[in-house]
Amino acid sequence: MSCHPYDVLAAQRLLPVLRNADADEAVRETRTLLAAGCRAVELTTSTPGWAEALARTVPLADAHGRPALIGVGTVTTAAQAETALDAGAAFLISPYPAPEVRAAAARRGAVFVEGGFTPGEIAAAVRAGGAAKVFPAHVGGPGFIRSLKAVLPGAVIIPTGGIRPAEVPDWIAAGASAVGIGGGLPAGPGELAALFGGLAAPCCCAPGEGR
């Protein structure tokens, strides 16, 4: 099965954003998430040794045996983008407009979710890559996403920042494709699996199909 990362995110709906103390911790948390039914995980360049963690988690599979999609967030320079892509990142995410990352992603044919907050920044990101990260999302709330989708109906919008797991359905109802969550995820494996299972939408494509 070959699914575009945007389709995987739309089916998963909650994108864990990991900021860990070191690579080992990032790998452990990623393994826990994958075992709980998560398939796409965002590591971040704020984690010491993030490139090592990326290389160690890219070969992993989720609980259903599907290849994990490990992306890298807080990517703000071309050097970070190249390092992430060389290590096998499935997608890149920036917290704000990052022209040099956009250019690096374009050169490599990589999936890049560019960050922004104003309608102009978000529209520019969508025009370039079809998607935008809205950050810090809690400032505008779900109503802001609803307004953005009214003028960008086909956009993949991923609000991130200050959102609790229990609030994800409200953001999805407002038009978000997925929601980035950096904290507050359940610690227990059973609760974590229930969270992902309760949010999951039908998988993006049938076997043999892609986007």
Q: Cα distance, first to last residue? A: 11 Å
Using the alpha-carbon principal axes, give the shape. globular
The average pLDDT is: 95
SSE topology string: HEHEHEHEHEHEHEHEH
* Helix proportion: 40-55%
Total strands: the figure is 8
Q: Spatial order of the strands in the main sheet? A: 4-5-6-7
What structural category do the secondary elements indicate?
alpha/beta
Indicate the radius of gyration in whole angstroms.
Answer: 16 Å
Report the biggest beta sheet as strand number plus sense, adding barrel if it closes. Answer: 4 strands, parallel
DSSP helical segment count: 9
Portion in strands: 5-15%
Low-confidence stretches: 206-211
Topology:
Blueprint: H1 5-12, E1 14-16, H2 23-35, E2 40-44, H3 50-57, E3 69-73, H4 78-86, E4 92-93, H5 99-108, E5 112-116, H6 119-129, E6 131-134, H7 141-151, E7 156-159, H8 168-173, E8 179-181, H9 189-199
Parallel strand pairs: 1-8, 2-3, 4-5, 5-6, 6-7
